[in-house]
Design goal:
Layout (H helix, E strand, L loop, with lengths): L11 H9 L3 E6 L13 H20 L6 E3 L6 E2 L3 H4 L9 E2 L1 H18 L3 E6 L5 H17 L6 E6 L6 H7 L14 H10 L48 H27 L4 H16 L5 H14 L4
Parallel strand pairs: 1-2, 1-5, 3-4, 5-6
The chain binds zinc ion (ZN) and manganese (II) ion.
Length: 314
C-alpha cells in the first residue's frame, strides 16, 4: 500500500499509529457548485483536499518527521452558495446543504475523530459560505468531548486563502485585488486548479461573450428571492483569464508555508497545556493597569508585553 496522508487511502492500523503519535487531523470542507464553463464543479472540495494534503506533508517535512498529518475525507457539499461570494444557490449544478446540516456534519465527523484519539484537528475551509457553520459544529464537538471528560482537544479553523500574504496578492493581481469573496472561479481558484487538476480546467472555454461583467458589481446587501440578473452570465465573479499554473505554485507555496506556521504555533501551546506567554502577558497587563499612573512603570511593562507577545512571530 502506498504511503499517503489521506485517511481514505490509509489502513486503520497505520491511522491508529499516527494518532498515537499525536498526528494533526485535517478536515477539508468544500462545496459542489458551478464554477463557470471553464472548470469542473468540484473546485472548492478538490482544492481544499489538495491544500490540506500539501500542508500535512509540509508539516512533517518542517518538523523532521516529528509531526504527522492525516487528511480526513472531505465534506464535499457546502452551505448555500451566496450571490455575493459564489454566484448564488439558484444556479443549476450548485448543490447546497442547509446550515444545520453543515453544523451536524462538522460536529459528528469532528467528534468521531476525537473518539479515535485525535487531539489536534484543523478544519480547512474552501467555500467562503461554510465558515460560521463549521465553527458552530467544531464548538459543539468540543463541548461534547468536554462533557465526556476529554479536555485536551484543540480545534483550529481556517480558510486557506487567508494565508496568502499581501506581497503575493500585489504580485499576482497587479491591476488590483477585489477580495477573496469575489475570487469565485477567478485567478486564485483557476490557477490552483491548473496546478493540481489540469484535466478539470479548459481555458479555451472562457468565452468572451459569456465572461462579461467581471469583476461582478453586486449590491452590498442580499435579496430573497434571488434576483438572478445580479449574477454575471458566466456564474464567475471575477475574470479567470490571467490564471496560470505558475501562479498556482506561488499561491500553494505561500499559503502552505503560512498554514504550517499557524498550526505549529497552536500545536506548541497545546503541548504544554498552558499558554505561558499569554498568561505572563496577561499578568503584565494587570501590572500595567495598576502602575500606569506612576513613575514610568507603564513603559517597562509595555516593553515586556511586546517582547512576550512578539516572540512567536516568524
Ligand atoms: Zn470556488
Ligand atoms: Mn465556493
Amino acid at each position: 500500500m502506498k504511503n499517503s496522508v489521506f485517511m481514505e487511502e490509509m489502513d486503520a492500523f497505520t491511522y491508529r499509529e499516527k494518532l498515537a503519535k499525536d498526528a494533526v487531523v485535517f478536515i477539508p470542507v468544500g462545496a459542489l457548485e458551478q464554477h463557470g464553463s471553464h472548470m469542473a464543479m468540484c473546485v472548492d472540495a478538490a482544492l481544499t483536499k489538495a491544500m490540506a494534503g500539501a500542508t500535512a506533508e509540509a508539516l512533517t517535512a518542517d518538523t523532521d518527521g516529528a509531526l504527522e498529518g492525516i487528511v480526513c475525507s472531505a465534506i464535499n457539499f457546502g452551505y448555500r452558495s451566496q450571490q455575493r461570494s459564489g454566484g448564488g444557490f439558484h444556479l443549476s449544478g450548485t448543490t447546497s446543504l442547509s446550515g444545520t446540516t453543515i453544523i451536524s456534519l462538522a460536529r459528528d465527523i469532528c467528534y468521531s475523530l476525537i473518539e479515535d484519539g485525535a487531539r489536534k484537528i484543523v478544519f480547512m475551509n474552501g467555500h467562503y459560505e461554510n465558515y460560521q457553520f463549521i465553527f458552530e459544529g467544531a464548538e459543539l464537538a468540543l463541548e461534547k468531548a468536554s462533557a465526556e471528560g476529554i479536555k485536551n482537544v484543540k480545534i483550529q479553523l481556517l480558510s486557506y486563502w487567508d494565508f496568502v500574504d499581501d506581497a503575493t496578492i500585489q504580485e499576482l493581481y497587479p491591476d488590483g485585488f477585489t477580495g477573496w469573496d469575489l475570487e469565485h472561479a477567478g485567478v486564485m481558484e483557476t490557477s490552483l486548479m491548473l496546478l493540481f487538476y489540469p484535466d478539470l480546467v479548459d481555458m479555451d472555454r472562457i468565452d468572451p461573450a459569456l465572461y462579461t461583467g467581471l469583476p461582478a458589481e453586486l449590491p452590498n446587501y442580499d435579496v430573497l428571492p434571488i434576483v438572478a440578473d445580479y449574477t454575471p452570465p458566466s456564474g464567475c465573479l471575477s475574470h479567470p483569464g490571467a490564471s496560470t499554473r505558475e501562479k498556482g505554485i506561488i499561491l500553494r507555496d505561500v499559503a502552505v508555508a503560512n498554514m504550517v506556521i499557524a498550526i505549529e504555533d497552536e500545536r506548541f501551546e497545546t503541548h504544554y497545556g498552558v499558554d505561558w506567554k499569554r498568561t505572563i502577558a496577561a499578568f503584565a497587563n494587570l501590572v500595567l493597569h495598576f502602575s500606569s499612573n506612576e513613575f514610568g512603570g507603564s513603559t517597562i511593562t509595555q516593553q515586556l508585553i511586546k517582547v512576550l507577545t512578539e516572540e512567536d512571530d516568524h
